[in-house]
Design brief:
It is built from three helices and no strands. With 86 residues, it is mainly α. It has one domain. The longest helix has 30 residues. The radius of gyration is 17 Å and the shape is elongated. The two termini are 12 Å apart.
């Protein structure tokens, strides 16, 4: 069967776009972003962890690691999907 990377590629690009958008929103609205993040972690007190780290190096490492992770998840998804689709 021909190898298709459309889903992993689409997932990786989508993740990169969302990452950049999220990073911009955190920079513009840090308090709202903190409240949203806290709600996603079931109310864990994130304020005790410190402030946001919005350095260029954290942005670059974050976008690279999240995009690579998304691509791997997409690749594994395709493999598992094809296994169950047989």
């Amino acid at each position: 069967m021909k190898q298709s990377y459309a889903i992993p590629n689409a997932l990786a690009v989508t993740t990169a776009i969302i990452y950049v958008l999220c990073r911009v929103l955190v920079g513009l609205f840090p308090d709202v972003s903190f409240a949203i993040a806290q709600s996603w972690f079931h109310g864990i007190e994130l304020g005790k962890l410190g402030a946001w780290n919005l350095t260029m190096s954290s942005f670059i490492s974050g976008i690279i690691s999240s995009t690579i992770t998304a691509w791997i998840v997409g690749y594994i998804f395709i493999k598992v999907y094809r296994l169950f689709a047989k």
